[in-house]
Amino acid sequence: NVPHGFPHHDVIRLKNGRTLVLAMEDGAKGDSLFEVTRKGHAVWAWRAAEHVDSILPAKAAHPNDLTHINSLQELPENPWFAAGDARFRPGNLLLSARNLNTIFIVDRQSGEIVWSYREGLDRQHEALMNGPSLPEPGKIQIFNNRQGSFSFDRQSEILEIDPRAGKVTWRYRAPGFFTPTGGLQQLLPNGNALITSTRGGRVFEITRTGEVAWEWAPPYEPVRAVRVARDACPQLASLAWPTPKAVVPPAGYGYVDHDAYRFARKGARQEVTIEGTPRTVLGEESVCSDLVLPFGARAEIGFGVDAAQWNGTESPPVFTMHLTTAGTSKKTVLLRESVGAGGESWRRRTIPLGAFALRPVRLCVEIEGASADGVRWAWWEQPSIHSARDAGRTDEEEDEAVGGDLTPEERKVQEEHLKSLGYVN
Question: 71 and 108 in contact (C-beta within 8 Å)?
Fold first, then answer.
């Protein structure tokens, strides 16, 4: 329990048996660390605002949340300390400060920052030094989210750096691997890396050459998937070894990053109130988008008229959705309906797209007779494309995810959780 603040993101058990808690104290400009005994007594504290001046930019991007630390590690035994470099003393703390785009090491004896790295980092997570039982001991792996790449290549990356030289010695980046926030990498004893792509909705294992050896796309956003050895603790080691069972995906399944099948981004839509109901609609009467559709894809869409603007003397507007597969000229009409003539003014439809799964397509929506004399009365709601494995998320929630670590729903759950623990009123 942090009396005047709340813990967040990470908590680790230290080698001495105590617990290191990351917290934000009320009124503080940066994060704090507390070493806590098993009886709940804080025996050591470190406050970022007292030590980060040496790594602060000239103008702080987030003056009320300077650091936003999102991972902790107690340094393991490593060759750099063995060679006499005291910066890497086992027991010193390796931290990732997302809002500084920087990772750094805190000397446990002085509290000072003795090493830092920021080259090319963008909202990174999980700075972890490889221990002596892993390949490349002493190297530091980083999950570099590259949130700023959202508007162009949309690719996150895994970095491995030599902390003495401050140089990247290995990098993994690939189309379809992007999570603007969240994520985790775990180096495995065989040299492969297990990667959690939180916003990408996938956990996958890659070889050192970047080949995907295994993947899993659950029906929810994974956060920190970790592979645990069967003898990781006495309780597991004492269990009978189960018969391995293969997890086989459905026939025809192939992973497609959900960012590849978002129909339209923030600039292509607007908020309007139609007959008293707030709706997110497309700004243009005709909009097309190039997509790669996922396994079991479906489109959910609303469309209709504002009766207060449409006088009924014009012909009812006609709403058409059609699709063209890349490399062909064949147009498939998926929907063609009129709205507003003696019936309901707004409709919703779910349109199956599974027949076009795993294929690049151009999906278009059009309205014939949407306006006249500058007065608009017919609208498409923002289409949302879903896969067979997820319940989907609105594009507003997707854009919110780019701006923070939590979706609105997650923030609500977090707030209720903190209330139940007594951290907030």
Answer: no
* Cα(151)–Cα(245) distance, integer angstroms: 41
Instruction: State the Cα–Cα distance between residues 373 and 286, nearest whole angstrom.
Output: 18
The pTM for the full model equals 0.81
CA distance 343 to 340: 6
Q: Answer for the pair 128, 71: CB distance below 8 angstroms, yes or no.
A: yes
Find, among 254, 288, 263, 262, the residue nearest to 357 by Cα.
Answer: 254
- Measured between alpha carbons, how far is 169 from 192 in angstroms, rounded to an integer? 15
Please say whether the beta carbons of 52 and 101 come within 8 A.
Answer: no
Residue 217 makes CB contacts below 8 A (sequence gap 6+) with: 201, 202, 203, 255, 389
Pairing of strands 193-197, 184-187: antiparallel
Amino acid identity at 281: V
pLDDT block averages, 10 residues each, the chain of length 425: 81 96 92 94 94 88 90 98 98 97 97 97 97 97 94 91 97 93 95 95 95 89 91 91 82 83 76 86 90 92 86 82 92 92 84 93 92 84 83 54 51 58 49
CA neighbor of 367 nearest in space, from 312, 319, 306, 334: 319
**Residue in the block written with tokens 């990356």:** 157
Nearest partner of 45 among 28, 67, 20, judged by Cα: 20
With tokens 């090491």, the residue in question is 105
Q: Which residues contact 260 (CB under 8 A, 6 or more apart)?
A: 176, 291, 292
Is residue 249 a contact partner of residue 219, using CB atoms and an 8 Å limit? no
**C-alpha distances in angstroms, 264 versus 247, 274, 394?**
34, 21, 11
Q: Residue 171 CB: number of other CB atoms within 10 A? A: 13
Q: Count CB neighbours of 75 within 10 A.
A: 22
Nearest to 168 by CA among 210, 219, 117, 202: 117
Distance CA 257, CA 237 (A): 37
